[in-house]
Structures are given as C-alpha cells and as structure tokens.
Amino acid sequence: MNTKRRAALTIGALIAPVLAVSLPASTASAHGWVTVPTSRQQQCAEGTVDCGQIKYEPQSVEGPKGLQSCSGGHTEYAELDNDSKGWKAAPVGTTATFTWHNTARHATSTWQYFIGGQKIAEFDGRNQQPAADVSQQVNFGGFTGRQKVLAVWNIADTGNAFYSCVDVNIGGGSDGGSGGGGDTCAAPAWDAAHVYSGGDTVSYGGHTWRAKWWVTGDKPGTTGQWGVWEDLGAC
C-alpha cells in the first residue's frame, strides 16, 4: 500500500508542472482600471450598464501603447467603444480626481489623459511600482459639457498600456454650476500611501474631504458618516 502511495505521489509531482504550464494564466491578466469617477469598466462591473465579458474582468483592457481606444483593441470588449450604450456621466468641475485600482502593480512610465485625442494631463510614473490605488488630479482645461476621457496607464518595461474610458459632465456638478472657477479642487489629491493628521484636507472623486483624526490607506467616501473622512462637498 505504501509503495502504491509513493508511486502515485511521484507521478503527481511529475504531472503538476505540466498542468501549471498548460493552464490559462487568468490571474496573470489582472492589472488595473479607473474606479473614480466611475469608468465604463466600473459601470459594467457594477451592472449599471449591460455589458459582456468585460463585466468580469474590468482590469484587463490591455493593448499596445498609443491607442485611442476604450477597448484597447479587444473585440471581446467592443462594448466599451460604443458611445451610444447609455454610459452614465459623472458630474465634475473644471478638475477631477481620477483613481486607478491596480490589481497587478506594474512599474509605470506615465499616466496620461485624453479628450478627443488631445492630451490634457500626464503624470510621471518614474518607472516605479505604483500603489494599489493611485489618485491624480486632472485639469480639463477649456473643455466643458459631456466629454469622454481616455485614461492610459503606460507600463515601463513592456510595449503595452492599460486603457479606461470615463464619461464626465464638466461643469455639471451638484454644486449648482455656479461657475467662476469655484469648482476647482484646491486640496491635494488623496494618496493611499500618505499619512494624514486630523484637519488635513484632500480631494477625491470631485469632492473635498477632511480627516477627523490620524489616517492612512482609508479611501474617502468608503468609511461612512461616522468614519474618518468628513465630506466637505463638491469642488
């Protein structure tokens, strides 16, 4: 009996590497997408808009660098390129904080943002590994009204990038659209790796937030009314 068991274990040990090589690397395809403002991938994942396969893998829109495509050139994610699909546009001011959620933290060359093929913002990744959540404050310049923002995460050590489209309504914020530049977020963008003290303010998701006490890593808007972040309203 012991001889048979040892033989089975030996065979299993020989087969396991073959299986590991032949199985699809589904977990290796996990990378990142924009969660705030709510991107098209996020709306698919949340069921806000009826989508296909992308609903189950919003992090996987990867393609060659230099594309101007919400789908990253993937036919199976073609819904993301369909502007008439009923995407919800997030009301924002003249600036907004964009947050990437990275399930695989690849070394980054740059983060870029485009409207209609025109680059409106770029952030240096310094060829370093980013945090799991990265927030950047993007200025929309002279653009107003409903716009589609293409957010691009350029990887440092490959020829590929990750793509995420976000529909926004610039100047259509819940602050009544009073105009006059009062809707610019003056506070710095929230940083998941930063240590904040009570009274510190940040911008996140088009709102200004104030820390009630010491905090690091807790995302504004996720801790509830009794949590650490106090919502000071749209900016």
From TrEMBL:
GO molecular function annotations of the record: monooxygenase activity
Residue ranges of every copy of the Chitin-binding type-3 domain listed in the record: 187-232
Signal peptide limits: 1-30
Entry keyword annotation includes Kinase: no
Pfam families named among the record's database cross-references: CBM_5_12, LPMO_10
CDD domains: ChiC_BD (cd12215), LPMO_AA10 (cd21177)
Protein's UniProt keywords contain Aminoacyl-tRNA synthetase: no
InterPro entries hit by this protein: CBM5/12 (IPR003610), CBM_sf_5/12 (IPR036573), Cellulose/chitin-bd_N (IPR004302), GlcNAc_Chitin_IntDeg (IPR051024), Ig_E-set (IPR014756)
Assigned keywords, A-Z: Hydrolase, Monooxygenase, Oxidoreductase, Signal
Domain of life: Bacteria
Protein name: Lytic polysaccharide monooxygenase
Natural source organism: Streptomyces achromogenes
